[in-house]
Specification:
Distance between the termini of chain B: 17 Å
Helix content of chain A: 25-40%
Structural class of chain B: mainly alpha
Strand content of chain B: under 5%
CATH architecture of the largest domain in chain A: 3-Layer(aba) Sandwich
Strand content of chain A: 25-35%
Oligomer: heterodimer
Number of strands of chain B: 0
Largest interface: A-B, 26 and 21 residues
Number of domains of chain B: 1
Shape of chain A: globular
Number of helices of chain B: 9
Radius of gyration of chain B: 17 Å
Helix content of chain B: over 70%
Order of helices and strands of chain A: EEEHEHEHHHEHEEEH
CATH class of the largest domain in chain A: Alpha Beta
Number of helices of chain A: 7
Structural class of chain A: alpha/beta
Chain lengths: 220, 211
Amino acid sequence: MIICENVSKRFGETFALKDVSLSFEKSIAILGRNGAGKSTLAKILAGITKPTQGRVSVFGEDPFKNVDIRRKISIVTHNPMLYKELSVEENLRFFAKLYGIKDWEWVIHELKLEGKLNSKVFELSRGYLQRVAIAKALMLKPKLLILDEPFSSLDVEGKEILWAKIHEFKHSIVFSTHSLNEARFCENFAVLEKGELVYFGRDYDEALRALRTREEGSKD
Amino acid sequence: MKRSELLELVKKDLKIEIRSKAGLNNAILFALTTAFLFSLSIDAKTFFAPILVLVTLFSSILACSATVTREFELETIEALKASLSAQEIITSKIISNFLIVVSLVSIIAPICYALFNLEGNFFLLLTSLAIVAFPISSAVTLLSPISAFAKGKEAFLAVMLFPIIFPLILPGIKLLNLAHNGVFDFFSALFLLLYAGVVTTLAQLVSDHLL
C-alpha cells in the first residue's frame, strides 16, 4: 500500500504540492498540465525529495528515511540521471553493482540496446537516453515503478517496448502523464492543478472531466 | 554500506575524472603556473612550504568540486540517493576527492621540488603533502554541495572554505618545513588528521541537508 497524507512541498515561497492526500495499491495515474506538481509528487513517492509537510508511506515505511524501501523503488523521469562520460554498459553495470544485482544483462536485449552498449551517454539521442533510463529502472526489479512522462521522447519502437513492459509489470506502478489516454490502464486517477489535488478516484470519466475542466479554465 | 558499493562509487568518480579531465587539468595548470611564477619571483627555497600549502589548497578546490557539482548538474545525485543514504554518498565523495588530491600532489610535488631547487627528503615531503591533502579534500567535499548552484562556484567555494581551512595552514607549513629537513612532525600530522576526522564527521552529520 502506498499512502500520501496531507503532503505539501514548498520551493521558497512557491507551493509545488499543497495538502495532497491519496492512497493506492496497484496503480495510479498522476495527471495534470506542465507545472501541476506531477514530477514533485513522483520524486516524493520515490523518497528522493523530502516533503515540506505531511506523511508518505510506501509498503509501511517512509521512503525518505528508509534506504531499504528506496531500493525497492525505481523512477524514470525526463532526465535520464546517467553519467555522460560513461558508456551505456558502464552506466548499467555501475547501477547494477550499486544495488547488488548480478543478473542485469537481460535488459539490454529487452530494450534493444545491443548496438549502443559502447556508446557514451552524451552521444545518444533523447530516445535512446530514455530507453537506457528505463532499462536502468527495470533491471533493479522494483516493487514500485514510478514513470514520470516516460513516453515523452520515445520513438514508436521504444513506446511499444515500454507498453509491453508496463503490462507485464506485476507490482505497483505510478504513471505520471499529461495525457489521460495513456493512463487508461491504471486503477486510480489523481488530477493535479497548480499543486492541488482536484480529483482522486477510480472513475476514468470523472478524471477526464476534471482534467478537461482545468484545461478549458486555463484557456479562458 | 558495503565495501563493494563504496569501491564502485569511488571507482566511478575516478573513471569520470580521468575521462573528463575537467577538474584535474585546470588544477595542474594552475598549480604549475603558480609554482613557476613563485620560483622566478621570490626565494622559493625558503618559502616553499607556504607556497606548496596554498597551491595544494587552491588546486584542490579546482580538482575536487567537480565530483560533487557534476552529480547535481546531471541530477545523478537523485539516482544515488535512491539507493544510498546521504552519509554514504558523502563518505564516498570524501574518499574520491582525497585520491584525486593525492594524485594531484604526486604530480605537483616533484615539479615544485625541481623548480624550487629543494634538496631535502622528497618522500617524506610527499607523504606530508598527502596528510595536508586529507583535511582539504574533506572540507572541499563538505562545502561543494552548497556552492553547486552558485555562479563562479570555485571562487565562492574558496571564500567559504577559508574559515574552515585557516587552522590548517600553520600546521601544514610546519609539517612540510620539517619534512624537508627529514623530520616527521608527529603533532602537526596528528592535528591535521584529527581535523580531517572532525570535518568528515561534520559532513556526515549535515549530509541530509547538503544533498
